[in-house]
Amino acid sequence: MWTIARLAFKEILYKKIFLITILMSIAFLVFYGTATQFAAGKMFEGVGNPGMNDPYFLLRKNMLSTQLLGVGLYFASFITGLLAILSSVGSIASEIESRQIDTLLARPLHRRSIVLGKFVGLGGLLTVYACALFIGIILVNQLMGGPYMSVEVTLQQVLKAISLFALQPLLLVGVALLFSSMMTTINGGIILIILYGISFIGGFVEQIGVLTENDSLVNIGIVSSLIFPLDSLFRKMTIFLFDTADDPISFASQGLFGSISAPSSFMILYTILYGAAALWLAIRKFEARDV
């Protein structure tokens, strides 16, 4: 298994898509840092010397700073998700299509070792990437935001949030391996991207439903989370980071990237079991597949 994990790690590391993603991530951080610095310098221009005891000023500051950080983290989640999908959905299917899988199957390896090895290799690298990008966004906010646009977060909040942020690529890799063991790369990629979109659109719909007290919209959001619970991880992550559990104005301060309807601990457990079940099914499907 560890040999396959090392091979999978090196394979994605040397692919052009990973190099391009790294370069574009650096460009994104530079752009995001510039925007944050500009916002910090211009957003409150002309308001004089506002006092931190002014309730209106504090509310405006919290709304703008948390929404700016939320946008950065949402886009970071989007980049990580796409990289996880594109790098793992063809990890088995492409090798079957090109007959490269014959080289691995000719060795005394269990098929489950191949699937688990790819999960460890791909998941490990993507987890490191997700953590690095998350920390980069936080550092940009803290260093470039100044006293007005930086969000006050503690180390405990950051650690709790990053643990859920890092689970997102692991969930995607597990599901991608399932599709890769069942169908072609293109079909698996299309289905997974659609599920990805359903999850996040459903999350937005649920937040709007809670805000407008529309039970139909809330139920649509819940169903989408059960179909593919990726958005639940992001919503729970923002609650941990901004420490807004049971805060009635959290949605107003964070906008659509926050959460007025906090995912429960059961939902996080469901997400973990969902990923584990997808990985188990990937092993079973690959073992039963005639290649």
From TrEMBL:
GO terms for cellular component: plasma membrane
Annotated keywords: Membrane, Transmembrane, Transmembrane helix
PANTHER family linked: ABC TRANSPORTER PERMEASE
Transmembrane segments annotated in the record for this chain: 12-35, 71-93, 114-138, 158-179, 186-205, 255-283
Pfam families in the cross-refs: ABC2_membrane_2
Entry superkingdom: Bacteria
Protein name: ABC transporter permease
GO molecular function: ABC-type transporter activity
